[in-house]
User: Fold these one by one.
Assistant:
Number 1:
Amino acid sequence: MTQSPAPPASVLTAFGATEAPVPLPGGQGSAWHSGELVLKPTGLPQETMWRAGVLRHLPEVPGFRVARPVPSADGSWAVHGWEAWQPIGGSPDPHRADDVIRAGEAFHAALKDLPRPRFLGVRDTPWARADRLAWQETDRAPEFPLLKPLLAARRPISTPAQIVHGDLLGNVLFEPGRAPAIIDWPPYWRPIAWASAIVAVDALCRYETDPALLERWSHLPDWRQLLVRALIFRIATHETLDDAVASEYRPVVDLVLDSA
C-alpha cells in the first residue's frame, strides 16, 4: 500500500503539532502521527464536521472507547483537507471477530437516537455506491458473475435502520485492561446487524475465520439477508474482480447462499 503525502507545515501549525509527522501503519496508508495528534485527510466536509461533533460529545460508557477529535487553533475541524484526532491505545486483531461485533453493538447502542445525517444522500464513493446497490437503491451493478446470485437472493427485511459503523473489523483496537477502541468511523444508515454482518464477512473472506462465526450470531434479526447484503457491498466496491480476488469471496458466497 502506498503511503499518502505527509500533512504540510501549515496543517501542523494549525493543529498545534510540534513534531515531524510519522506515517501510521494500516488503514489506507493515509494517517500520520505527530506528538499527541493523529492527522488524516478529510473526506466529505459535511461528514467530517458531523462525525467530529458526534464523537466530541459522545459520553464515555462501558463496552468501548473512541478517539476524540481535536479542533484547529480557530476551532474548525478541518484545515486544508486534513483533520486531527487524539491518539488512542491498542492494536487491531481481525481474529477477534466476536469481540469486534460486541464492541460494535455497544457503540451502536450509544448512537441509537441520532437522526439520519443529510450528507449520506450526496456521498459518492465506491463504498457509498456499493452500499446503495446492496440495498436496492440503485440497479447499476458491476458485471461480476459472483454478484448475480447474491442480487437475486435479496428479500425484504423489517429490521429498522440507524447510524452505524460500516467497517469495524480493522478499526477496533484492543489493549489489555481497557475497553476496545473504535476508530476511523465511516457512517451508514443501516440495521445494526448489517454492521455485524460486514465484520463476519470480512473475517471469513480475508482471515479464514471458522464459519461457525456465522452460526454464533444467527440470532440477530434478518441475519442471513444482511450477510447477503454485506457480501454485495464488499464485492461491488472492486473495480475489477480477477480470479484471485473472487476466490476469496466464493466460498463465503456459497456458504451464505446455501443457508439464505
Number 2:
Amino acid sequence: MSTQSTGPTETTESTDATEPTETTARLDLAGLEKEAAQKGRGEKGSAQKGSSGNGSAGKAGAKKGGGRDRYFDLLRAIALFRVVFYHLMGWAWLPVVFPSMGVMFALAGNLMARSLARRPALEVARGRLRRLLPPLWLLGAVGLTGMLAGGWGPDDDGNTAWWWLQLAFWIVPLGDPPYGDSVPGVHGLIGDEWAADMGVPLWYLRAYLWFVLLSPLLLRALRRLPWPTILAPIALSAALEFGALSVPGWRLESGVVDFGAFGACWLLGMAHQEGILRRLPRYVVPSLAPAVAGIGLWYALGHNLREGHDLDDMPFAQSLWSFAAVLLLLHISPSWTEWPARLRRWDRLITLLNSRAVTIYLWHSVCIGVVSALWDHLWNIAWLEADALWLLESPWPQLPAIWLLTAACVVCFGWVEDLAARRKPRLWPDGRATKASHRARSARSA
C-alpha cells in the first residue's frame, strides 16, 4: 500500500478545500440587497399563495448549502497540519490521535455528494479534475526536470516505451506516478531522497481521482443500500488482510488497498451530506464508534504498532480506526456558518490552509527534506556538537523553518490553485483582502 507516512485535505483533498469564499460572500451580499429592494417595493411574492412556510424552508436550505461549513474547514486545517507534523516527527501515535487522511477523504466525499446533487456527474468530475491536475502538473514540471537532469531514465530492462508511457501518470494520475528514487541530491542543499519526497505523496491524488470517478456509482448504491455500501470497503480490507482475496499487479493492488482503507470514510462523508447519518438514533454512534475504534487499535497493537510501522502500514486497522473517528466527528458536526468566539483568532490561518491545501500537501515533504539537509550543516559547528547536541538531534527547531519554506512554496506555486478554480491569482489568500473589500462595499451600500 502507498502509505500516509510517505504521502493529505489528503487533501488533501484537499482539492475541495478551495471553494471560493469571496464569490460566496458576494452572492450573499447581492441576495441581501435584492431582498431589501423587494421589501422596499412592497412585493409579496408567494406568501400570498399560502406557501410561505415551504418557501422559507427552501431559502434557509439554500443559504446553508451555499456557504462554507467552518467546522469542516477546521477539520481540514487540523488534518493538513497533522500531516506535516507527522512527516517530520514520525511518531506512530499521531495517526491514532487524528487520522488525517480518513478525515480528508470524508470531507471530499461530502463535497462530492453535495456537487452531484446539483450538477450532472460528468460536469462535477470535470470540475474536480480541473482543480486537481494543474497543481500536479506544476510539481511535475519542476520535479521531472530535476530528475531527468540528474540522470534518471529508462530502466536497464530495455522496456523504454513502457517507461515513457508511465510518465503519463504525472498528467492524469490513474496510477502512482513514477519517480527517480536513485537521483542524487544537491550536496549540502537537497538530500538524496528529494525525488521520493516529491513523488511518493502522490498516492493521495491517485486515490482521490478514483474516488471522484467512482462517486456517481457509489452515491447511487448509497441511496439504495446505505449501510451495506458504507461497510463494503471495510469488508474488502478484511478480505485482503486475511487472504480471502488477492489482487494481481502492484498498481491495481495499491488502488484496491487504499479503497478498502479509506472508502468507508469517503462514503461516510457522502452519507452525511445525504442525511443518512441524521436518521440514526443519537445513541448509536457514541455507542458503536468506540467499539469499532477499539478493535482497530487492538489489531494495530497486536501487529507491532511503533515508529516506522504504524496505521499506514496496516490497512485493515486503518480502515476500522479511521471509520470510527470520522463517524464520531461527523456525528458531532455543529455546522458552523460563523466561527465561535474562541476560534475567530484563527480565522486567517485556517482560511489560508484551506485555500492552499493542495500546494501545502504536494510541497511540504520536499521542504522537510531541504530543511533537514541544511540542518546537517550545523554539525560542522564544533561548539554546537559539544554543548548543544540536543539542538542538532531534535526535530523541533526544524519545524518553524519547514513552515517558513512551505509558506514560500505557497507564494511561489499556490497561485495555480486559483487558476485551476478560475479565480484571480492571489499570493496569500488568508481572507483579509476579501473581508476588507466586503466592508467597503457594505459601507458604500449603507
Number 3:
Amino acid sequence: MATAPSPHGPLAGVRVVELAGIGPGPFAAMLLGDLGADVVRVDRPGGTDLALDPAFDTTNRNKRSVVVDLKEPGGADLVLELVDRADVLIEGWRPGVAERLGVGPESCLSRNPSLVYGRMTGWGQEGPLAPRAGHDIAYIAVTGTLGMIGTPGGPPAVPANLLGDYAGGSLYLVVGVLAALHHARADGTGQVVDAAIVDGAAHLSTMIHGMLAAGGWQDRRGANLLDGGCPFYGVYETADGGHMAVGALERRFHDEFAALLGIEDLAAAHGDTARWTELREAVARRFRARTRAEWTDVFEGSDACVAPVLSLREAPSHPHLSARGTFRDHDGLTQPAPAPRFSRTPTTIRSAPARPGADAEAVARDWAVPGLAARASHPHRKAPQ
C-alpha cells in the first residue's frame, strides 16, 4: 500500500482527484504527482481496458488509489466528497459521460467553486467529432502533424502515441490546469479546462505553419530542413545495422561534422541545395563503413551534433543520461525520472504504481472521507451493467 505523499516538489499540498482512464489523462495526473501533488486515482471495479499489470503501469506512480463504482447508489457522492477537498479534478471520458455519472463540472463546481476541472479528450468537448471514438493516430492525422513525418513517397511514420496523447494532450492539460490553478488561487474562482489532443497537436506545429506561409516549408514529407529532407539533419545506417542521428544544421557544426566523417571536400555543399543529393549519398556511404559504436567514438566530445540512435533498453545506460539520473530504478522498475528539475523543491519517485483500491483506508483518513474505507470495493469485481 502506498504511503502518504512526502512534501516534495513545487505542488506539495495540492490535492488532485483523477477519474481513472487510459492514455493522456493518467500521464497528466502522473506529472502532477511527480511535481508533488497528492493524487488520488478513483479506479472503477474491474479496472480499465488497458491490458497491463497494474504493478508495471508506471503512469500510476506517485498516486494513491481508491475504488468507487459510480454506477452504484452513493458512488458519485463519495467522489463529490473528495471533490469538496480537492484543488483539481481530471477526467478523460467522452463528453457527457461525467455528467451522466453525476460528477460533471456543474455538480463539482457547485460544491467547490474554486475547483479546476480538467477534461482530457481527443476531439474536444464540442464540434462534429466530439462524441465519436478515436485514438492518438486519428487526432494527429487530421491536424497535419502525422502527414509531416516520414520519407518521400512512403506513408507517414507513426510516432508511437507520444506526439498526440502525451505532447498534444497530457502536457497541454497540465499547462492548462496549472494556469487555472494560479487563477483560482488569485481570486477563488475555478473553471473547466478543455484540453483536446487535436488542439494541442495543431498548436505544436505553430512554427511550421509560419514557415509554410513564408514559403520556407514545402507541404510534403522529406523535403524540408527539419523533416529529413536535408542531408545534414537525418538518420543514417551504420555497418552493423545501427543508426546515427545527424543534426549539423549550422555551418560551423557542419564543418566539424564533415571533417570527422572524412568528407571535407564536400563541406561547401552545406549551402548548395543543388548538391544535397551528392552530399546525402556521400554521408550515407561513409556511415555504412563503420559500426555504430565506432562512429560514436569518432564524434564523442565534438560539436558535430551527432548521436547514436539507442533503443529503449539502451538509453538508461548512456553516459550522459546516467550522469544526470535521467532514468531511475524504483522498486525494480527502470523508468524516466520526474522532469523538469527544481532547485528549491526537488521532485522524486515517491511510490510505486498504485494498485487499484489499495489506499482506501489511508485516503479516507487523510482526506477525511470515511465512506471510502467503509465501502471499499474489491478491485477485480465487475461493475453491474
